[in-house]
């Protein structure tokens, strides 16, 4: 039950004035409950994906406020459905037709008629040409004197229907009764109890994919997943997680392709847009766009290993980008800044000065200003939200009418901004460019690490080798070399000493565990799993100099040990040796979710010697064919030969 707010200790049987006040309070409370109920239902209607993860969203096809209006525009099937639930005398009615889009392309889309009658919402899926007894559910608001509740009634769910279309839709686009009661109802009640007008309410944050058609996006994204997804996650040579970065770039590519498709339609042209991706990183977005017939190239300060995998059609340049007249791209239609770090605020300016026709797409992530780290002026506001507002102002200062949208990507930083049209006519270019320069020069100069520094405007008198003055003397591009992090490049001898010392201590622990014959078939008896030690005890094994060497690499002892996930595992604040006989085959992709076996990708299997065979007194707990690491030198394959 949702308890509505009570009047302050109001007693019944008071004076007439008090009774009248009580009546007004009850009326206000009833209105508030109905209003919140309708807002909660509206979320379920327009954004079903926030509850039902088996759909990507819904397209609202039409809304009507009367039966007459509906009958004027809809076909006979929808007319018959509406007339079965409403009469012309009904008031407080509404009729909505929506299309539900399943996440998996193997399921069909479903059109649904939603009928509002006073405090009831009736959801009727349409199965054209099939049985009229479609599974229907009604969501009703139940109001008492001091509380509000929701009642969900299902109809025709128990009808024995052999239609395969209805059967396949149940549990996907047509929710089952138990799901409605266990998942949807609690969510609706939660939304009713919240202030749904507050900016902090997740259901009312920036709606996603507002500038492109959701149905086309779903179809194209699934196509790109099939075309590129599995291929690149399988061979991904970078240290980054392919499940995140591959599918994120696929989603961004699908978005841009549809955005540009709509732009071509608006401009009345068939010519595919060209682009430059500044700070392109792994270059996958460039590769996908190029393969989908958009001419362009990417620039990044550092080449990635994955670059060698792409076809010749994918053009990637290894060079730094310093904002100046030398970093303009007058022949490109779009400038892309996809997590472009220190280049993020410069993207609108570079696009604006490249040509009047040049547009931009930017996905802000790390908080950079023109002359260092961005510092939010208002600490009461979230930094990300504040930074988005700032980049929006940058786009406007550059002379664009800025649009904002939310992408569907596996990232918390998913708000993109687009400058597709100018806010001024071409004859005002000189005047607007002076405003751009003034905006850039009045921004504070801060240290790259985010500390406050000199706030005087930068001087721009210096020139580069081509005689072009940089737009900021204090701008610093990213280093070509990756910063050493997480003890990944610690001296090999030191790393081996630390691992050996910790492993020896664990194996000799008085709490030593032993794998049973149920866990392992190992000649010679039980396999010593070692004990577990609290991390503070492990720290005491090493002197301060060793600990300092590891700490210098933005990590430390704990980071180093966690990196050796094929040898150690942590349980809370305790460390122990991993028993692969209990956990499973080292590195095999068939491992259960969360298992460290997933850490070895197929093309890395048998490319390194097994640590257990070399260091454990009883060798590896797994047979050679079950272990992802080589048990002898003869088994070792080169990384190049093992790639698929």
Shape descriptor reads globular
Provide the low-confidence segments as ranges: 1-29, 198-204, 449-462, 516-524, 585-599
Class based on secondary structure composition and strand pairing: alpha+beta
Beginning-to-end CA distance, first to last residue: 57 Å
* Widest β-sheet, arrangement of strands: 1-7-6-5-4-3-2
Which properties best describe this structure?
644 residues; alpha+beta; seven-stranded antiparallel sheet; seven-stranded mixed sheet; 18% strand; disordered N terminus
Written description of the protein model:
The chain is of the alpha+beta class. The protein is built from 18 helices and 21 strands. It has helices spanning 16-46, 67-73, 76-83, 164-169, 177-193, 214-235, 242-267, 284-291, 346-354, 383-398, 429-441, 492-507, 535-539, 544-551, 557-563, 580-583, 611-615, 639-642, and strands at 2-3, 55-64, 93-102, 110-117, 120-126, 136-143, 147-155, 275-278, 296-300, 315-318, 334-338, 359-363, 368-369, 372-373, 400-406, 415-422, 513-515, 527-530, 532-534, 568-571, 574-577. The strands form five sheets. A seven-stranded antiparallel sheet has the order 1-7-6-5-4-3-2, with helices on both faces. Helix 1 (16-46) packs across helix 5, helix 6 (214-235) packs antiparallel against helix 7 (242-267) and helix 7 crosses helix 8 (284-291). Residues 1-29, 198-204, 449-462, 516-524 and 585-599 have low confidence and may be disordered.
């Amino acid at each position: 039950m949702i308890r509505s707010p009570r009047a302050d200790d109001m007693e019944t049987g008071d004076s007439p004035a008090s009774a009248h006040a009580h009546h007004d309070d009850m009326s206000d409370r009833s209105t508030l409950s109905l209003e919140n109920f309708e807002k909660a239902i509206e979320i379920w209607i327009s954004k079903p994906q926030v509850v039902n993860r088996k759909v990507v969203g819904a397209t609202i096809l039409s809304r009507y406020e009367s039966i007459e209006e509906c009958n004027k525009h809809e076909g006979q099937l929808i007319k018959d459905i509406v007339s079965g639930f409403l009469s012309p005398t009904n008031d407080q009615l509404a009729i909505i037709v929506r299309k539900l889009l399943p996440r998996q392309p193997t399921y069909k889309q479903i059109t649904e008629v939603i009928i509002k009658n006073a405090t009831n919402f009736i959801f009727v899926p349409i199965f054209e040409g099939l049985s009229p007894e479609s599974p229907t559910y009604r969501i009703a608001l139940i109001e008492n004197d001091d509380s509000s509740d929701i009642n969900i009634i299902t109809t025709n769910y128990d009808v024995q229907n052999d239609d395969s279309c209805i059967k396949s839709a149940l549990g996907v686009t047509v929710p089952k009764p138990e799901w409605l009661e266990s998942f949807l109802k609690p969510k609706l009640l939660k939304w009713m109890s919240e202030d749904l007008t507050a900016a902090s309410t997740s259901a009312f944050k920036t709606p996603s994919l507002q500038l492109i058609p959701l149905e086309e996006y779903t179809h194209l994204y699934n196509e790109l997943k099939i075309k590129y997804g599995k291929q690149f996650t399988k061979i991904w040579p970078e240290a980054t997680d392919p499940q995140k970065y591959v599918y994120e770039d696929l989603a961004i590519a699908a978005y841009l392709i549809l955005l540009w498709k709509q732009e071509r339609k608006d401009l009345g042209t068939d010519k595919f847009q060209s682009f430059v991706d500044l700070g392109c990183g792994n270059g996958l977005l460039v590769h996908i766009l190029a393969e989908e017939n958009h001419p362009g190239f990417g620039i990044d300060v550092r080449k990635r290993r994955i670059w060698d995998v792409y076809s010749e059609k994918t053009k990637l340049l290894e060079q730094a980008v310093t904002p100046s007249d030398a970093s303009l791209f007058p022949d490109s239609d779009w400038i892309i800044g996809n997590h472009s770090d220190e280049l993020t605020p410069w993207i609108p300016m570079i696009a604006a000065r490249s040509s009047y026709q040049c547009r931009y797409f930017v996905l802000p992530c790390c908080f950079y200003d023109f002359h260092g780290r961005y510092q939010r002026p208002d600490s009461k506001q979230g930094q990300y939200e504040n930074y988005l507002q700032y980049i929006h102002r940058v786009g406007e200062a550059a002379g664009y009418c800025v649009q904002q949208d939310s992408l569907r990507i596996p990232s918390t930083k998913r708000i993109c901004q687009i400058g597709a049209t100018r806010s001024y006519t071409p004859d005002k270019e000189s005047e607007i460019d002076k405003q751009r320069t003034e905006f850039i020069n009045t921004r504070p100069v801060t240290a790259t690490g985010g500390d406050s520094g000199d706030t005087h405007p930068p001087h721009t008198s210096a020139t580069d080798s081509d005689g072009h003055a940089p737009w900021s003397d204090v701008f610093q591009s990213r280093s070509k070399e990756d910063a050493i992090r997480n003890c990944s490049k610690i001296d090999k001898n030191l790393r081996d000493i630390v691992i050996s010392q910790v492993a020896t201590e664990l194996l000799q622990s008085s709490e030593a565990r032993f794998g049973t014959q149920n866990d392992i078939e190992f000649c010679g008896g039980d396999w010593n799993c070692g004990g577990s030690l609290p991390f503070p005890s492990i720290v005491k094994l090493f002197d301060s100099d060793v600990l300092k060497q590891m700490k210098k690499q933005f990590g430390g002892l704990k980071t180093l040990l966690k990196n050796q996930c094929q040898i150690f595992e942590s349980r809370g604040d305790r460390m122990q040796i991993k028993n692969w006989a209990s956990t499973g085959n080292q590195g095999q992709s068939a491992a259960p979710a969360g298992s460290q076996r997933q850490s070895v990708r197929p093309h890395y299997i048998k490319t390194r010697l097994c640590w257990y065979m070399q260091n454990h007194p009883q060798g590896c707990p797994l047979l050679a064919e079950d272990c992802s690491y080589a048990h002898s030198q003869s088994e070792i394959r080169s990384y190049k030969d093992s790639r698929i």
